[in-house]
Amino acid sequence: MESPWKTFVPQAPTRLGPPEWFTGTVYLSELVVTPAPMHLHVLRVMFAPGARTAWHTHPQGQVLHVESGIGWFQRWGEPVREMKAGDTIYFAAGEKHWHGASPTHAMTHLAIQAAVEGVSTEWLERVSEEEYRQKAD
Q: Looking at residue 93, what DSSP letter applies?
């Protein structure tokens, strides 16, 4: 018997992250997109060293689970912080933030968020080199 998941979970090909949303080389693999009422989106996101998202928010919040590598993230108004394989980070609904790889390591994470009226992410301005490099050692 075929798995019931196959009835609504497409096997989408890995694609390059759009330059409007990312700095550097980023690959997106859509793993799960569920129908209503759940509206859950799960993606595997692979960042080359130095690659990162633009500032953004999520209407229902977001969970990141780092699968490999070393990354950085920042909540608006807070310092840049490090995340490593095994770490799980939560961003509240509407919380402005960015995340990506450190300058010297690639990083892969699962990104888990729910959509509201078809929108799971609101993309904002790009993260400048100056903002990105603010991480305290």
A: T
